[in-house]
Protein 1
Amino acid sequence: MKELRVGLIGCGFMGRTHSNAYRRLNNFFPVEHRAVLKAICDVSPEKGQKFVETWGYERAETDWHALMTATDIDLIDICVPNFAHREIALAAAAAGKMVICEKPLAMDVAGAQEMVDAVETAGVANMAMFNYRRVPAITLAKQVIDEGRIGRPFHYRATYLQDWTISTDVPQGGDALWRLDAKSAGSGVTGDLLAHSIDTAMWLNGPISRVTAKTEIFVKERLHAATGTMQPVTIDDACMFLAEFANGSIGTFESTRYARGRKNFNTFELNGADGSVYFDLEEPEYLQYFEYKNMQTGKKVESHLTGWRKVHVTNSEHPYMSHYWVPGTCIGYEHTFLNAIADFVKGIETGVPVQPDFRCALQTQKVCDAVIQSAREGRWLETGA
Ligand SMILES: NC(=O)c1ccc[n+]([C@@H]2O[C@H](COP(=O)([O-])OP(=O)(O)OC[C@H]3O[C@@H](n4cnc5c(N)ncnc54)[C@H](O)[C@@H]3O)[C@@H](O)[C@H]2O)c1
């Protein structure tokens, strides 16, 4: 078996999900490569050492530059806060290494464009980790739409809601709360949560051409964990935007960290002339489908039989599911990363680049930047995506 020698940077939440995916890859997917966890890197030596012990990395580094010059690493996996994505990706591409990068791709379009140029000039395989595409029910939604079952699309509706920043006592910045500091995160819920919704939306329903947005900062000042002083909050706490898709349909997107009771409430619905699909991450094994017109007969479904169908996406015919257990049994959040890594490896082996690659993630970044700018200027903006 060929080896895929991994150097992963960032021992946090995503470092764990990606490490788990590499560990499980060859247990579930018949790929030609064996993932080898060569090196882990984190600025904290304790965290790196814990990853060596927990996930079986061969060594730990505290400076990511060491991974670039290492001759025993093929793939750099970037799981650090957003501000560091660009510099690490540029160095990895210059070193001729494959790159996987967490979302959002960069702090802004300029950084994302540099990353695209770097991997394309170097000709290295690359992928942005928009893992929700790999929820089998969402992949099935893509199949249903591509089969023409929804017909002409009219409405796309996405929400991504959380509630963990309602308390004014939550500080901003520092190692744990970099997401609340624009200098580390780029933006707030737009880059953190809506980037996922936008990626999914454009995958399912095509490019978003224009947006108009409203953002809000509910708590104007927070203690900064790094400086110990009260500082203005610079990220968007909440964001709502209207979208026009290139295919003529229109969309609404809503995201906040102030929706009391919502922890990671990620939903979307697409309504077309012939049918609709609906997904809710709190019931990730289900895709809801409303069939108005039957594709085979070309006729309307008899009215007394119409209704939303809740498809339990666990059959072996469903995306990814033949790699797991018997029909009727579920997989979880962590498998979305495993499915993504398996697709990345298949992409290397078949020569058909995996999606979303950096160029694709750049389109999402364009929409995010347009959303932030639109909220600032209070007008509709072309996204250029
Ligand atoms: N795909 C998803 O659903 C998803 C979910 C959460 C986070 N993310 C993305 O993943 C990335 C990481 O987020 P997280 O939640 O894992 O963060 P985290 O705070 O849990 O972990 C980040 C780790 O990176 C380390 N680090 C910071 N700067 C570093 C540097 N220069 N060199 C080496 N290590 C460094 C920190 O010490 C920390 O251990 C972000 O870009 C985030 O947007 C994606």
Protein 2
Amino acid sequence: MAARLFLLLDLIIGAYCQVSTIERRNSRYVKLPVVHSTNKDVFSDFGDKRAITTVPLANRSDVAYYASLDIGTPPQQVFVQLDTGSFELWVNPDCSDLAGSADVRFCQAVGHYDSSSSSTATQLAGSKTLRYGIGTAKIQYFSDDIGLTGTDAKLKGVQFGVATETDDEFAGILGIGHGINVTTRYKNFVDELADQGVTDTKAFSLALGGKEEQEGVIIFGGIDTGKFTGTLKTLPILPAAESPDGVPRYWVNMSSLSLTPPSGAKKDYVNETMAVFLDSGATLTLLPTDLANSIAADFGAEATDANGLYPVDCSLNDLPGTLDFAFDGVTIKVPYNEVVREVRNAFFTQCYLGIMASDDFVLLGDTMLRSAYAVFDQTNNAIHMAQYVNCGTNEIEITKETDMSTIKGDCDAPTSKTSSTESTSSSSSSSSSPSSSPSKTSGGNTAATGISTPGASTTAQAGDSAATTPDSSSSRRRVEWCLGLVAVAFWAAIVI
Ligand SMILES: *[C@@H]1O[C@H](CO)[C@@H](O)[C@H](O)[C@H]1NC(C)=O
Ligand SMILES: *[C@@H]1O[C@H](CO)[C@@H](O)[C@H](O)[C@H]1NC(C)=O
Ligand SMILES: *[C@@H]1O[C@H](CO)[C@@H](O)[C@H](O)[C@H]1NC(C)=O
Ligand SMILES: *[C@@H]1O[C@H](CO)[C@@H](O)[C@H](O)[C@H]1NC(C)=O
């Protein structure tokens, strides 16, 4: 009798185990929330409570995007900035180097990894200096297990950097650009996900989420069809050799750029192919000067301010127009309220165009990407893109067999804002949308990571840096310098 019971139990356990392995094998994707730096609900649950409650997170950038990792054994939770414009993962900025006490507390609150408290940590030979547009991080390589917070996905023995010294960095950075044999000699985070079977392919989809949503989602190895409308259109990633800076980034051809103003009279700015790269780590979108000036003029800005930004009327936030970025077969319509940045301090609210002039470096940053749903597919060397709309959640796995062109979003096309006033309206809109401020996080760190230069490390040692990546050009340095200045000026303006 007892033997039979055990046999039965055995069968039940056996069946259960088989089911659970099958389930795991059937869903090789892992989802992480993308947290906006302004999201008080998330950040207030975390870290040093006293620090968090006194950090005016809501006054910070609307444009820095974080995901949470559990590093080591036992796990230590660390928030890192998601950056499609760089290639390596590192943690532990030196918070003491930051100028404002609020920044210091924010930096401390994103979490800290202590290798000596992790039983699975190994220090590796090799260090490196990572240079971003603004800011640098000197790192020592370590290897440790990394879990994706809130999921059962766990990576063993991942190589990443622990900062020994940083300048102008608010949080660690999770570079999700190309890794092994392209920009690095070791497997980066995206490589490890595929290598260790958490995902079937080296692809991830990114929905940053609108300014008002305060949260987005990144799915490694999967797609959420509840986050876009229409079918995903496949755009080949330009080979590094054919890209403007020769660095293997998420470069694609943009075919035209136009404006659909509230009046509906469409205006084309560019009617020729232009290479742009998609950079979640960059706050602003950078376009050639003539183009940026033309767009700015249509938003009522005749010139840039001393920081190189185009001041615009905040009432534009309430108007139903869109700025339309067209690619082969898909147009991403960016509503005015996503392209206009609202900057608030204790005394007044100032609005700026989320676009800056740059003749050397053209990139689509957060001000454009919030309106797109994009699958970054290294396996097929392509970006699959559609218009972002949030109508729920429906996750599917990406396998090597997945035909992206057949994947259709569940959402209806976005409904344009109904406008009660024409563009002459000067009513203040400062109370209607989420507050934001141009902290260094937005102007500096993010723009910075966008134009990180993989070849610019100064202390790279054997086995760490890529053999293939080119040096940073002087033109790029100029953009970096320029953005740095903007960030510093912005920060000074806020602090004073
Ligand atoms: C990277 O290159 C090395 C040496 O050429 C090769 O052995 C290895 O398989 C490559 N790895 C990947 C993931 O392509
Ligand atoms: C991108 O555009 C350039 C210039 O029109 C063209 O030569 C190139 O073939 C295009 N590349 C891709 C991958 O579409
Ligand atoms: C852009 O190109 C298309 C097709 O080549 C043409 O029909 C259209 O008139 C052009 N628009 C402008 C503003 O040049
Ligand atoms: C944050 O914003 C609120 C309201 O906009 C304002 O009262 C407060 O002074 C701001 N705090 C800082 C540190 O700028």
